[in-house]
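REQUEST FORM: STRUCTURE PREDICTION
Request ID: SP-0412
Submitted by: Lab K.M.
Chain count: 1
Length (residues): 251
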Amino acid sequence: MPKNRNAFSLLAAWRRRVLSRVVHSGRRRVREWGAVTAEHPGGLRFRRIGPGTRLAFPQGTVFGEPWIELGAHCVIGEQVTLTAGLMPDLDLGPEPILTIGDGVVLGRGSHVVADTTVTIGPDTYCGPYVYITSTNHSYDDPHQPIGRQWPRMEPVVIGPGCWIGTGSVILPGATLGRNVVVAAGAVVRGDVPDHAVVAGAPARVVRSWDPEQGWQPPMRTPAPVPIPSDVTPEQLLALAEHGETTGPADG
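STATUS: Completed
RESULT:
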């Protein structure tokens, strides 16, 4: 009897390993086949989708594609919502409503809701669950449910090279300059100048770049060590394993 139990346990373990491999292999194939690219747009018909851009599967809510432009080499994570217009099947005119520049990254679960124009500049990186919207509820009439009052819409412009941290909210009318850092969880409205760091709800500038004095207030951590252009990936890996890439620059 113990031998039978051992044989049954081995058979069950073998079946589990086989099923696990099948499930994971199938999941990888579904993610690969379900991704959206310029060559394989699936059922989505964007106004433009640049070469090298990829929308991971599964996608979030996507509608108004004829008014959405995606630049080249963008990375759109899983469950990212991209919408143009208040609802599907509207005629939004001849111009794009949502424009995403080259090299933009939108992290998993982010939302970009463009009921009026939203522009995200090239090389802007967004962490997971970022919310960018050109529309906000209005509550002017105290006698009407807020959801029944016509929303307010203002364009949103995010400059090139920005970093927008996890869980941040970019509100209607926000204009972010070049290379702006938005701290995780910040709620941004109004104008943010170039080379600024904003944090809080509502967000305020907590650090900015001065051409003569550098970052004010000064950075609390040393600048990262630049990687020499002649270093190969193999050499870089070997240096990292020995902890030689984490110290301050010499001299």
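NOTES: The two ends are 74 Å apart (CA to CA).
Reviewed by: T.R.
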